[in-house]
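agent> fetching stored inputs for the adenosine-5'-diphosphate-glucose docking request
agent> found them:
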Amino acid sequence: MQRLIAISNRVPKPGDRYTSGGLSVAVRHALERRGGIWLGWSGEVQETAESEPKAVTTRWNNVDYVTVDLTRRDEEEYYNGFANRALWPLFHHRPGLTEFARREMAGYYRVNQIFARILAPMVKANDIIWVHDYHLIPLASELRALGVKNRIGFFLHIPWPAPELFTILPNHARLAVNLVNYDLVGFQTKPFMDNFTAYLKEEMNVSTQGCVVEAFGRISQLGVYPISIDTEEFVRFAEAPASSIARRLEASLQGRTLALSVDRLDYSKGIPQRIDAIGRFLELYPEYHNRFTALQIAPTTREAIPEYAEINREVAEAAGRVNGRFGDIDWAPIRYINKSIGRATLAHLYRAARIGVVTPLRDGMNLVSKEYVAAQDPLDPGVLVLSRFAGSARELRGALLVNPYDIDGVAHALRGACEMSREERISRFEPMLQHLKAYDVHRWCDDFIHALTRDRALAMIA
Ligand code: ADQ
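agent> prediction call returned; pasting tokens
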């Protein structure tokens, strides 16, 4: 079995199984089975600018965790700058929030070069390399420039934008060439892959043959690999005796219907629009006053970026408006907290919620929607209200699909979820759970690695 090397912006802590998300669990599992390396930023910032950052290696269960500190300038230009002020908003179709500076783009390429220089000497001839997400699009090109000839795959966790939006980036052509330097490029959904091939055709005059791109002196395979969750683990968590937090929540609800939302606090998640829709629901259906509670859990992220401080203010204000207008001395319709919650507890909270409200404006996949389904009680499941613009909407067909921009539409869906019979809830839930059991995160991981190694065999035959 070939050794695997994974590279992502951040590397999870070795042995930290409790707080890690599904992606970390699956990639770690694959790494431990094959032996390997996981390389990325430590999350630490060195105040003194060293000429070449040092890597620290920790070995744990057959895997070398290699972490690199960045300088303050690297963090500002690569992470806060090009990755999160240019690529993230633009790839989520928010050109109005997109800021581009050549200095930051240079920082982005510089950090990719740093990772490549640290990794290249560690790579053995037979290793397979798997790069994750928008922070690292140029990494294969940088590794190739250092003579690395191995199979290198890339998975994009976020959407790929429509061509006319992608071309807003002054370096769009360079990024496209960077992507074709991978042997395999994985997208969450077919429309995202189609956006990339449409761009290649319209802007670069490159046609794809099926899922194969032959351009810029290389052949690259494209594919759709929808990421998933560790379904069995979530089912197990949800079925374990309820934690004290979950019991406190149940007691505090006093029999009211709970609608739960869990998101990183990010403008792509549509939280202010969702809160407005809850306000509209309470306006249209006063019979739900004092019978309905919405809980929004949204830990803050990327706080150094002004748009993220702004979204926190916006959500708090929207929640305050709805509570002020509809609340009473013994009832606030919306509870808004910025806490991070352990995964086992999260499963209990999902199960306690009659409605899971997941309404991003645009999302690569959205794992919360899958976790919510997996955590439900099969005999009395809740209803998922899901944005049609989440990647997961293509798989979770038993959800009530909504357009998050249509406040009235979401309000009607909330009412439909509150009123839905147990029979209908079960008939919507069962096929979704079956799907999540068949296509869990381990399957996702295996499919991607299989495609990356299978194509190696084909290349050798050719
Ligand atoms: P995210 O944008 O972070 O991921 P999502 O897919 O929903 O979005 O994953 C969030 C994860 O964080 C979930 O596992 C969730 O349980 C966890 N989480 C969120 N809030 C939490 C809280 N308060 N406490 C504890 N855990 C919390 C990006 C893309 C997505 C894509 C994933 C994976 O934006 O579209 O699905 O990567 O590819």
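agent> quick read of the result: The radius of gyration is 23 Å.
agent> awaiting further instructions
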